[in-house]
Amino acid sequence: MGEKKLAEAYILGIPFGLFGAHHFYLGRKGFGILYACTLGLFGLGYIFDLIRMRWLVKHANRHGTDMKMVSDGYLIGALGGLFGAHHFYLGNKKLGIFYACTLGVFTMGWIADLIRMKHLVKNHNAHTEEKSLGTAYILALPPLGIFGAYHYYLGNIKLGLIYTFTFGIFGIGWIIDLFRMSKLVRKAGLDKKSIGTAYIMAMPPFGLFGAHHYYLGNYFLGIVYTCTLGIFTIGWITDLFRMKNLVKASNDPTSDYGTTKVTAYILCVSPLGLFGAHHFYLERYLNGGFYVATVGLFGFGWFFDMLRLPVLYERYADEDKHKYPDEAYLYWFPFGIFGLHHFYLENKKWGILYACTLGCLGIGWLIDGIRLRMLLREYNKYVEDPDMNDFRICRPSCRSCSVYRCKRCCYRLCSCGCFENFSLSRSTTETENETNGEVRTTPCDDFEMIKEMYPDENHEGYNEKPANERDTYQGEGQAYTVQESYDTYPTGQTSSDQTTTPAYDNGAYPGDPGYEEQYLAEGEAGNEDFPYPPPNESENVGYHQEQYQEHTNYSYDDNNGIEDTNNCQYEDNSPSDEIRHHEDVNVTVQNEQEQYELENQQNYQQYNVQTDSQYQEDVHM
User: Fold this and answer.
1) Omega before residue 575 within 30° of 0, cis
2) Exposed, middle or buried, 581 (CB in 10 Å: 0-12/13-18/19+)?
3) Cα separation of 434 and 431, whole Å?
4) Greater confidence, 443 or 236?
5) 257: helix, coil or strand?
6) Mean pLDDT, the chain, integer
7) Dist CA 62 CA 157 (whole Å)
C-alpha cells in the first residue's frame, strides 16, 4: 500500500464523505461501513472528518489501522458512549455490554470516560492488560458498587459474589474499598490476597463464621470456625491480631510465618482439643482418632498436649515419622490393655489380639510396659531404613548380610556380595541341603573368604569379574568358559537337579575322614559324575615301583661313576632303593593332590555359574 495523499482524501471525502469513501481510501474499512450505514454518523462525523483530515492521513501513513486514534474515541464515545460504543471500539467487550445494559453505568461512567478517553486509547495501543483505576471507581459507584461490580471487573469473582449477596458486606466493605481502590487495582490479576480484604471479611458477623479463612484458602479452619462460631470467639479475636501473618502465609506457601503453631494452640486450648482437633490440624490422624474415641484420653492426654504442643509442632514441621516414648507411654497407660500402643506402633495384629484378650489377660500389657523402649527402637529402625519396612519379620541366613529380604518377596544382593533367599518357616541349616528347588541357599561368592578358607590355593586370576559378567576363567593350564545363556543347564540336568553342597567341603580331600566312604557310596549308586576316585596307597606304591623299574636303567659307580646299563643296579654309595621309592611316591601324591584341588576349584566355579543362572530363572518366574 502506497503513501496516502491529503488531496486525494479530500477529493473523496468532500463529495462522498457521508458514505465513508475517504475512510475506505485510508484503509479504515470499519469506519467506512459505519459511515455508509449512518450517513456519516448522522452528518456529525462527516463534518468532524473534514476538520481532522490532515491527522487521519498522517495516522494512516504512520500506523495503518492497528493503532487507535484519540479523536476516534471521542467521536464514538460522544455519540454512542451511553451504550458502550467506545469500549467496543477499544476491544473492551465486557465493559461495552455492561455499559449497554446500564446506560453507561447510569451516565456517570460515560461522562468519566469522555474525560479519560486519552488514557483509555493509550492503554489499548500499548496492549497492556492492567486494570484501570478510573474504571474501577466508575463501577464502584452506587448502586452497582454495593453489589461488587468493581470486584467482578478486577477479577475477584468470589468477592464479587459475597458483595452481591451481602450488599457490599452491609455497606461497610464497599465504603472501605473506596479508600483502598488503588491497592485493589495494583493487585488485580496477581492472585495475591489483600490484608484489607481479609480484615473486611473478618468483621462480624462473617468473621465469626470464618469468612476470612475461606478468603485466604484455609477451608479446614473455615469449616471449624463456621461450626464453632470462630472457635467460641477465641480464635476470631486471635485472628484480628495475627491477620498480617495469615495473609503472608496465604501469599507465600513456602512458609507459614508461625500461623500453624498459633492455630494448633487455639485448637488445643479450646474444648475441641478434647476431640483431638489439634492432632487433625497437624496431620496426626491416628492420634486424633484416639482422642475422639477416648475424649482426649479422658482429659489427661489433652492436658499433657498443652504442655508439649511446641514439641508436637516441631515434629510436624520436620515431617518426623519416628515414634517417641512420651506418646507411646501415654497410649500404653491405661489404654494399652486394649492394644492402643501397638496400634500406635503400627502392629495391627498385636493390637487386635490385645483388644480381644484385654492385653493377653494383662500379662502382655505389663511386659510391654517394660519393653516399650525396645519396641520403639525396633520401629524407628525401620523408619530410618525404608527398604526393611515391609519385611520386618524376615531373618537373614547369611549373618554378614545387612539387607534383610524375605524369600517369598524378592531377592536382594547382600553386603557381602552373595545372593541370599530366606525362608520364614525353616532355618538355613534345615534348608541348605534341599535339592528340590523350592528352597536354595547359594554359597557366598566372596573372594577374600575363599582365600582365608584355602590359603594354600593358587588364587591368581581367580574371580577377576563377577560370575555373570566374565566370559572365561583361566586357571593353571586350564580354561573354563561360562555358558552364555542363563536358562540352559548341562545335558541331562535341570534346575531341580542342582545340589547345594559346596565344592570346598570338609572331608573332600584324599585321606580325609569319610572321603573313601563317600566315594564308595556314590560309586555303588552308579554315579558317573564323580570323576575323582580316592587314591589307594598300596596301588600307588605298586604303580610307582613299576614305573621305577621301567625308567631306571642306570647306576652309579663308587669309583668312576660310569653308567652300568647291564645290571641296572646301584652301587653301595648310591641312594638306596627304598629312599628313592618313598621320595618318588610322595612327589607323585602331592602332584595328584594339587591337580585334584585345581579341578575341585574349577567345579566350584561352574557351580557358581549354574547357581546364578538358577537365580535368574527364579527371578523371572
Assistant:
1) no
2) middle
3) 5
4) 236
5) coil
6) 74
7) 41
Average pLDDT over residues 230-239: 92
* Angle 515-520-521 from CA coordinates, rounded to 5°: 100
d(CA 343, CA 24): 84
Give the whole-angstrom CA distance, residue 413 versus residue 419: 5
Which residue(s) pair with 413 in the sheet? 419
Tell me the three cell numbers of residue 43.
Answer: 452528518
Q: Coil, strand or helix: which one is 385? A: coil
d(CA 148, CA 168): 6
- In terms of Cα–Cα distance, which of 110, 27, 101, 103 is closest to 69? 27
CA dist., res. 238 & res. 583, Å (int)? 103
> Cβ–Cβ contacts within 10 Å for residue 392, how many?
14
Selection from 592, 591, 600, 586 nearest residue 453 by Cα? 600
Cα 145 to Cα 147: distance, rounded to the nearest angstrom: 5
Place of cell 519416628: 322
Calpha distance 131→67 (Å, rounded): 20
100, 84 Cβ separation under 8 angstroms: yes
Please choose, from the candidates 248, 256, 304, 245, the residue with its C-alpha nearest in 3D space to the C-alpha of residue 281: 256
Question: pLDDT tens-digit profile of 563-577?
Answer: 444 444 444 445 555
- Reported as half-sphere exposure (CB side, CA atoms, 13 A), residue 64 has a value of 3
Q: What is the pLDDT of residue 371?
A: 92
DSSP at 390: T
- Would you call 397 helix, strand, or coil by DSSP? coil
- Per-residue model confidence (pLDDT) at position 505: 45
Q: What DSSP assignment string belongs to 92-112? A: -HHHHHHHHHHHHHHTHHHHH
Per-residue pLDDT reduced to its tens digit, 398-410 = 444 444 444 444 4
Confidence of residue 609 (pLDDT cuts 50, 70, 90): low
Is the pLDDT score of 291 beyond 80? yes
